[in-house]
Design brief:
about 350 residues, about 15% strand, three-stranded antiparallel β-sheet
């Protein structure tokens, strides 16, 4: 989409084709299909009918059929493009692969408004906090192929939280110039802003991961400062009466859902909306049920939308986060990383 985020489900399997092979999207994933897989001569009909009759010609609805007409029914858009473009050199119709999501609408019917172009969200070379030996763009395994992108959380995402920026005031009016300035627990005696700790210490969920990684992607519990001044989970003391009239006392914590969803940037709106003017921060805590009361501690007041995050992250940073989420939000994106051997 316009934010360079995937709008469909992630396909979890490699599709490999040789020169001249054609693979069409058919009904492979239709539960009612009884046709075998893997044989081109037994596949269901294509889910895309290809070029159809339009206004006396052949083409695709909503496109410029006069300029981009098909030469036969069912022809694919790729085949039509190959036949017509580029107009200044018809023998070179291949598109160049690009690491940046650059989009220009070249198909639309002149009678319809054109789609807006997507800005070139290239990764800036000015990210000096990314070590050269852990670059985002690396050489392909095949020297004859284009470069590839490797996004490791510790090398490329954690620096976003630690990058120095123009200072902004927190909810109490204190200036901070890094994300971790607000989103941390000082000496385990302070609830991180928005219940989100973005520091690089070892996580209490998985010590092999940074705290920030698990805080973003795993469900957690609402925290507060207890009567001893220490950071801890907020608790309700709840009293119930069983069928025999016995009093049952239980302790309950207040769950918080993860702000990011691995595999979907558009499903990570709890986080990304902060930078796009949407709701930012965890929702207000629910009221305690009539049979429950807070344990001894100090609940935090609601913090949703108390700090304006719009503009804090740059468009390329948001694009990097989106791409990392869409490909699965891996801790290590490169299975051959030498640190995985430890």
């Amino acid at each position: 989409d316009a934010n360079a985020r995937r709008i469909g489900a992630r396909h979890n399997y490699w599709l490999q084709l040789g020169a001249g092979e054609i693979l069409r999207c058919t009904g492979c994933h239709d539960r009612s299909s009884t046709l075998p897989h893997g044989r081109l001569d037994s596949q269901p009909p294509s889910s895309n009918p290809g070029a159809v009759a339009l206004g006396g010609g052949l083409g695709f609805p909503g496109t410029d059929v006069a300029q981009l007409f098909a030469t036969e029914p069912g022809q694919s858009m790729a085949g039509v493009w190959d036949f017509h473009r580029p107009l200044d050199n018809p023998t070179v119709a291949e598109r160049d692969l690009s690491l940046e999501p650059v989009y220009t609408d070249e198909w639309h019917d002149p009678a319809l408004p054109a789609d807006a172009a997507i800005d070139n969200l290239a990764y800036p070379s000015g990210w000096t906090d990314i070590p050269p030996e852990r670059a985002l763009v690396v050489d392909s395994f095949d020297p004859g192929q284009a470069s590839r992108i490797v996004i490791n959380y510790i090398d490329h995402i954690q620096p976003i939280w630690e990058r120095v920026r123009e200072a902004r005031l927190d909810a109490d009016g204190n200036p901070f110039d890094t994300c971790v300035g607000c989103h941390q627990s000082t000496a385990d005696a302070l609830v991180p802003a928005g219940q989100l700790d973005l520091t690089a210490g070892a996580s209490d969920i998985d010590p092999d991961h940074y705290t920030s990684y698990r805080e973003l992607l795993s469900g957690d519990r609402e925290q507060w400062v207890d009567v001893n001044g220490a950071l801890g989970d907020r608790q309700w003391i709840c009293t119930d009466i069983d069928e025999q009239g016995n009093e049952i006392v239980t302790t309950q914590t207040l769950p918080l859902r993860a702000t990011m969803r691995a595999g979907s940037a558009n499903g990570s709106d709890s986080f990304l909306a902060c930078f796009e003017g949407g709701a930012c921060g965890p929702p207000d805590s629910p009221a305690a049920p009539p049979n429950c009361m807070d344990d001894e501690g100090t609940p935090l007041p609601a913090t949703r939308n108390t700090v304006d995050h719009v503009g804090l992250l740059s468009a390329p940073e948001l694009r990097l986060l989106s791409e990392w989420l869409d490909i699965g939000a891996q801790y290590f994106n490169n299975p051959f990383d030498d640190r995985l051997a430890d």
